[in-house]
Design the sequence.
């Protein structure tokens, strides 16, 4: 590693250091990190669009197989996040961002080739869906890395921008892919189109572009990370150093809350196209599916900013209350027994859910650094000389918790779509799954109020 990329001393809480050097370096690393994370989310969620089109181009997969392809990236991504959350202090933020971004080339190119051959077996598609989990894993390391660069007062906004603009990859893929598969973007290099029936006519479709379109951007982003970002010596830590978070109560409590915020966002995003198609068959699902993730992603930075002003716990508390009401509204506007229902009411209710889950994503991630800094400073209160070390320890623990909680929360991307499918199979409707989500949000309200937002809470944040 070239020494010029490694920063030995980093003191963002020192105002003079921050103004003289820290702010410009931190912002440069943030703005290189954001497009890399956006691409990671795009690759992670690309199957939510591809599965809708596979039957159109001749693949004879069952509905259950298609649901699995939509769910596997989330399952793999969530699991990878557990490991990725510890990689930045071990490998270095610059190096790991470049490597993890470059890894996205595998599923992106693989999808491009696989969909061109109608004889490609289902097992190959399942493997590619698993490899798309690389994109989901990247979030944990990206958030961990950015958290080291900014002072406590600016972490909410910085993490909100990184995550929120990164989350735009979900809506980006659902908006861009339906367009690029209708044109030979790469000419003869991209392969021949598949002919599909549309409105009684045979029209060409380049489904391979769903994967190929991201390849050049991934390559540029990986190179930008390698040559433009920095590693922080003070962020170095072994896995054993970081594993202390498993003994911290607030790690597990924040994991629970993040399932409610990010788990909802990514789960609703993954299942939205298929849910629309199953409940409102006359509606073009891909015409509307990208709106929800877009709203949620854009409002995540707002959640971080509001939390910097009002406190993360207060914003999180009210977010869960509104999310519970949003699910009740969704149930009201769904068709029941094949009768009734209002698509516009359903869509608006889901847009509220996406919006508030985005705000809650920002607020929960604002809570984590504050919680662990307060906890470590309390422990060192009787020893003023230990205060500086307490801040360093808090930053390392908070970074690990940011990554680990994002891993646990990401399992929502698997369980929410599968809950829809299971509820339909067992009861004939998705109502049972939605009522279960409401019950979960009630527990999140209780945890947030008791530990963090009530007067005299043990850890106000």
Sequence:
């Amino acid at each position: 590693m070239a020494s010029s990329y490694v920063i030995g001393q980093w003191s963002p809480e020192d105002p003079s250091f921050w103004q003289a050097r820290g702010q410009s370096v931190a912002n440069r690393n943030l703005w290189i990190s954001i497009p890399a994370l956006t691409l990671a989310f795009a690759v992670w969620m690309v199957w939510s669009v591809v599965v809708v089109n596979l039957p159109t181009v001749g693949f004879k997969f069952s509905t259950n197989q298609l649901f699995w392809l939509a769910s596997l990236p989330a399952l793999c991504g969530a699991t990878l996040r557990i490991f990725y959350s510890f990689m930045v202090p071990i490998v270095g933020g610059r190096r790991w961002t470049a490597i993890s971004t470059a890894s996205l080339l595998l599923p992106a190119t693989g999808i491009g080739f696989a969909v061109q051959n109608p004889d490609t077996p289902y097992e190959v598609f399942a493997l590619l869906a698993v490899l798309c989990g690389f994109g989901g894993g990247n979030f944990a390391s990206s958030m961990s890395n950015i958290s080291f660069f900014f002072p406590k007062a600016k972490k909410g906004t910085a993490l909100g921008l990184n995550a929120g603009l990164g989350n735009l990859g979900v809506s980006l893929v659902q908006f861009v892919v339906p367009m690029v598969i209708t044109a030979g973007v790469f000419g003869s290099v991209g392969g021949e189109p598949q002919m599909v029936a549309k409105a009684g006519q045979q029209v060409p479709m380049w489904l391979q572009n769903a994967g190929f379109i991201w390849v050049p951007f991934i390559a540029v982003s990986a190179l930008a990370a390698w040559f433009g970002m920095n590693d922080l010596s003070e962020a170095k830590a072994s896995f054993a150093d970081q594993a202390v978070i498993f003994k911290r109560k607030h790690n597990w409590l924040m994991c629970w809350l993040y399932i409610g915020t990010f788990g909802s966002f990514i789960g609703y995003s993954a299942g939205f196209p298929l849910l629309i198609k199953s409940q409102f068959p006359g509606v073009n699902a891909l015409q509307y599916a990208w709106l929800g993730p877009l709203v949620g992603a854009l409002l995540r930075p707002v959640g971080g900013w509001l939390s910097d002003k009002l406190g993360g716990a207060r914003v999180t508390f009210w977010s869960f209350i509104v999310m519970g009401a949003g699910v009740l509204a969704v149930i009201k506007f769904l068709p029941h027994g094949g009768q009734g229902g209002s698509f516009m009411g359903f869509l608006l209710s889901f847009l509220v859910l996406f919006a508030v889950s985005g705000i809650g994503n920002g607020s929960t991630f604002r809570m984590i650094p504050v919680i662990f800094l307060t906890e470590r400073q309390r422990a060192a209160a009787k020893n003023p000389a230990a205060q500086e070390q307490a801040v360093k320890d808090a930053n390392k623990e908070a970074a690990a918790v940011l990554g680990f909680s994002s891993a646990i929360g990401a399992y929502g991307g698997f369980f929410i779509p599968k809950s829809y499918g299971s509820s339909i199979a067992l009861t004939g409707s998705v109502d049972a799954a939605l009522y279960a989500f409401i019950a979960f949000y009630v527990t999140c309200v209780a945890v947030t109020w008791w530990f963090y937002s009530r007067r005299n809470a043990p850890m106000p944040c």
Notes: Residues 3-453 form a domain with the Growth Hormone; Chain: A; fold (CATH 1.20.1250.20). Residues 343-379 form the longest helix (37 residues). DSSP finds 20 helices and four strands in the chain. The radius of gyration is 22 Å.
